[in-house]
Amino acid sequence: METPAELGGHPEKRRSGLRGLVVTLLNDQRVRFLMVGGTNTVVGFVLYAVLWLTLGHVITYFGALYGSYALASILAFFLYRRFVFHVTGNAWTMFIRFQSVYIVSLVINTLALPLLIEVLGWNPLIAQFAITFVTTMVSYVGHKFFSFRRKKLPFENDEEPVGGP
Question: How far apart are the first and last CA of the chain?
């Protein structure tokens, strides 16, 4: 029988099985981003669908788009800040930066939605669903490197120390 040292360390520190996989996945920021983003995307899409199906005749698909973005982006900010990027600091400054990234996604959406609906004849719900994939990628990069970036301390640098990591 193998000893704990032969298995890779202290038994309590070694994670295996389903629990270990879950812990490993939840420690990955990209996985947390996709989980929170997926949740927020569902919320945003449901809001869009509800607004489009109930008020679409009055507010059009643009009204549904802007209303769903406004509500979903507030939820997204709190979820990303708390569960994905684990940042503290001035929430208002981060919220403004966060919304500026959301505005880029909103502009992409505003340009793509009529193209898909008016030019290509897509259903508004299908068009919005397709655009979500593009705006998700834009969102991750923007939030990681702008909205929730952490300032480097003066003694930090990107170079590895001599002799390896």
Answer: 33
How far, rounded to the nearest angstrom, does the alpha carbon of residue 8 sit from its chain's CA centroid? 34
Counting residues of the chain whose pLDDT is more than 90, the rounded percentage is: 38
The residue length of the chain stands at: 165
Model pLDDT for residues 94-132, shown as the tens digit of each residue: 899 889 988 999 999 999 999 999 999 999 989 988 998
SS (H, E, C) 20-62: HHHHHHHCCHHHHHHHHHHHHHHHHHHHHHHHHHHHHHHHHHH
Domain extent for 118:
29-147
For residue range 114-123, what is the model confidence (pLDDT) as tens digits?
A: 999 999 999 9
Q: For residue 47, tell me if it sits in a domain.
A: yes
How many domains does one find in the chain? 1
Residue 79 covered by a domain: yes
